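User: Hey, quick favor. My workstation is busy. Could you predict this chain's structure for me?
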Amino acid sequence: MLRPIVAGLVLTMALLSAARGAAEEAVRVYAAGSLRAPFTAIAERFTAEYAIAVRFEFGASGLLKERLERGEAADVFASANMEHPLALARQGKAGPVVLFARNELCALARGGLSITPATLLDIMLDPAIKLGTSTPKADPSGDYAWEVFRKADAVRAGSRVQLEQKALTLTGGPSRVQPPAGTSVYAYVIQQRQADVFLTYCTSARAARDAVPGASVVTLPPALSVGADYGLTALNSAQTDKALKLVLFILSADGQEILARHGFAAPTRPGQ
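Assistant: No problem, here it is.
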């Protein structure tokens, strides 16, 4: 299934290249914030190999999609879901969309909480526990958290409403928490006790745990487990040749190895 999509990307970019002239210097990438670490490493390797610079705009995928819909120019869009790039493709603003990485939701917990996958739902429902999430619609992480709440209702009737009502949408929205420069927003909200438990991507939770003494990462039990598929596309405003090289590099063995090293499931790697 991947080969026809990649072929579609190549054909789309070739047609765009024929219609436009020379490219600008850097490849402009709008990417989900959870991709900052692996994409920074990918860009370093890509630039070293092709002598092409990469300029990133990281943020909540839903907010980035809205900016692209309003006409901001970019070459590549890497979203933490498939829906946002597919929406741009349906609007005629982007080419074919390919699944390039997978993630899962985990719970990041402050130090001092005795918490396991088996007790996670009880703790999230505890009125004394501050439960943090990202913002639904603006950020796929928030949408995935709401999917956890929906699944919780099948485990314990009434859980969905309770969790939705108590959830604190601290990140991903227009009025999100602003941590100091260089500080993970998830580490910051736990350090500042704005949340006792925060539902976010496992990759982000593990990185935040390493920055917060005593914090832990809890895997969601199977009944609450939610996966995240990441979608990649080239915009119709793309600098075609350079964008194509970057897209193919992300899908290559080197690009997928970097994603896997940062904790993502890389679907083009054997066995993934």
